[in-house]
């Protein structure tokens, strides 16, 4: 959501295919009822490949990263820590920049 809010096009910074787990889409759909940034982020997210996961929320993001051996783009510090503990590559968006952690 942060990258959309800041106007950062992740396609300009990432070489990998961008995909979104269903847990993230569900969360964005819920937030989009009251949050314009979430509504816009949902529209952007729906353009990408969807990864089916069983777990909700952050657990679904971790599940997708482990199953598909992908990296995760997030600014959520707690999620970043969980991902690093599992050896999953993490990228964050800062201002108009994308940085690998």
Quickly name the level 1 CATH class. Alpha Beta
User: How much strand content do the residues show?
Assistant: 15-25%
The residue fraction in helices comes out at 40-55%
The count of DSSP E runs of length 2 or more, i.e. the number of strands, is 5
Straight-line N-to-C gap: 18 Å
Radius of gyration: 13 Å
Strand order of the largest sheet: 3-4-5
Query: Number of DSSP helices?
Result: 5
SSE sequence, one letter per element: HEHHEHEHEE
* Largest β-sheet summary: 3 strands, mixed
CATH topology tier name: Rossmann fold
> Which word captures the global form?
globular
Question: Regions with pLDDT < 50 over 5+ consecutive residues?
Answer: none
Q: How much is the average pLDDT? A: 90
Structural class: alpha/beta
Instruction: Count the domains.
Output: 1
CATH superfamily: 5'-nuclease
Q: Would you identify the CATH architecture? A: 3-Layer(aba) Sandwich
């Amino acid at each position: 959501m942060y990258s959309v809010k800041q106007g950062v096009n992740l396609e300009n910074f990432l070489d990998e295919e961008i995909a979104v787990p269903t847990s993230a889409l569900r969360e964005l759909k819920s937030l989009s009822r009251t949050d314009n940034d979430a509504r816009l982020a949902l529209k952007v997210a729906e353009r990408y490949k969807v990864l089916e996961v069983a777990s909700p929320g952050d657990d679904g993001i971790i599940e997708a990263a482990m199953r598909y051996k992908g990296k995760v783009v997030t600014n959520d510090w707690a999620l970043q820590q969980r991902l690093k503990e599992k050896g999953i590559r993490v990228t964050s968006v800062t201002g108009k920049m994308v940085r690998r952690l």
